[in-house]
What does this fold into?
Amino acid sequence: MAQEAAEQPPYFNIDPDRALADLEAPTDTAGFAQIAEACARGREDLASRGMNAEGRKELRLFSTWEITKYLIPVATAHFRRVLKQNPNLPQGQSESASGAKWFTLDEVLRLRAHFASEGSKAKEYRPYRPEGLAAKMVAVANFKGGVGKTSTAAHLAMSAALDGYRVLVIDLDSQGSMTSIFGGKVEDEWQTVFPLLARHYGSHLQAMNRGRMDRGEDPVPLDDTLSEALDVKAGDLIQSTHWPNIDLIGAQLNLYWAEFQIPVWRMQGRSWKLWDALTETLEADGVLEDYDLVFIDTPPALGYLTINGLAAADILLVPMGASFLEFDSTGRFFDMLHSTFASIEEGENIAARALGRAGLAFEWDAVRAVVTRFDGSQQAELAALMQAYLGRTLSPHKQDFTALIGQAGEQVNGIYEADYRDFNRETYVRGRMTFDETYAAFKRLLLGIWRREELERDGAGS
It folds into this structure.
C-alpha cells in the first residue's frame, strides 16, 4: 500500500493551506509593467552577450580551414600560396607566430573578389546573379508561432551573405527577434517600416486631394504623422549590421501600431492599395538595386504587416514542424492566404472591369513549405505523409534539430556566428550541415527563378 501511495500522480493530495502559503498576492495592471521590465532587463543582459566594448555585436573571425572548406572553393595549400604571392591581399591574423590564420568576413569577401578575377573561370567564386534583374524578395511566414520562422529567415540571410550576396533583412514583427539577432538599435516606430507605409498612404491622399480640388471639393488635410512620413526614405531606415554585407530595417514594439493605423487609413481612402505600400516605396527609393536578396520576417499572424510582406515577396517560405497540429495549422494558413488575396483580387477586379482596365492577379515565383526542427527518429513517417500530400510545395530537405542550435541560441547568435572552437570540429561540421542543406535547397530555387527570367528576357530581346 505504501508503494502504491508513493506512485500516485503528483496532483493527488495537494494541501489547500500549503497551496495558499505558496500563492502570491493578486496581480493588477501595474503588475504587467513590472513583469515586462524584468523581461527587458533580462533581454538586454542576454543580448549583450557577444557585444564588443562599444556595445555592438561583432562578427567572429573565419579560419583558413573554414574559408577553403565553406567559402572559397580552393585547396588550402593553393590559398596560402596565393596570399604569399600577393602581399597586398589580406593576410589574416594569428594568435601565435605559427598559429592558424583568421580573417574577417570583409577580408574574405575581398579575397573572393581576387579569386573571381584571377582564378579559374570554371569555379564558382561568386554566386550566380544575372545582371539587370531585380533583387529577389523572400518572405518567411506562418501564423503559428514556434515553427522556426525567424531562425529560418536569419540563417538563410547569413548563408546568402557567406555565399557573397548583398542582403537586406526587413523585420516586420513587432517582437523584434530578427532585429536582436542582427544587433539592431530601434528606438521607436519611426525607425521601422512604419513611415514607409505612412508615406505611401500620404502620397495616395495627396493624389486624392488633387482630384477633389479639380472637382471643387475640399481636400482632406494630412495630419502630422503623414506630413512627416512624406520626407522619409527607405535609406533613412536602413542600418548596417555586424555582417559587412547584411543590412537591416529593424522593428520594435511600437510597430504593432501599424495594425491599428492601416485600417483607419483604408477607411479614409478606400482606393488606397495598402498591399503595395512596402513594394512601391522600396522600388521608388532604389533599394532593390542595392541588394541581391531581401528577406522579410513577418509577424505570426495574417495582419496588414504580413499582407504587405507577402504581397512584396517573389518567394514565399513557410516553416512548419512535422507534427499533426503544425500540418493542420499550416493548411489553415494557406487557406487564409487564398481567402485574403482572392478577396483583394475580386474587389480590385470589379472596379477594373468597370473601367476596362487590366485586372489584379497576385503571383509568386515559388512557394515552399520547409520542415524545421526535424527529428528523423520520431517524425519520419509523418514527414513522408506530409510530402505525399504537399508534393513539390514541401521542400524535400528537412532541417534537423541539432544540439548546435540550442548552444548558439544561448548566446543570441546564429549557427554561422558560432565559433567551431567552442565545440569540436566534427560536431560543428555535423551541426551546420542541416543549415547548409537548407540554404542549398533555397539557392537551387533562387537560381532556377533567376535563370528562367534571364532566358525570358533574352528571348524577348532576340
Observations:
- The beta strands are 62-63, 102-103, 136-140, 167-171, 239-240, 246-249, 293-297, 315-320, 366-374, 394-400.
- The CA atoms of residues 205 and 269 lie 7 Å apart.
- The first strand starts at residue 62 and ends at 63.
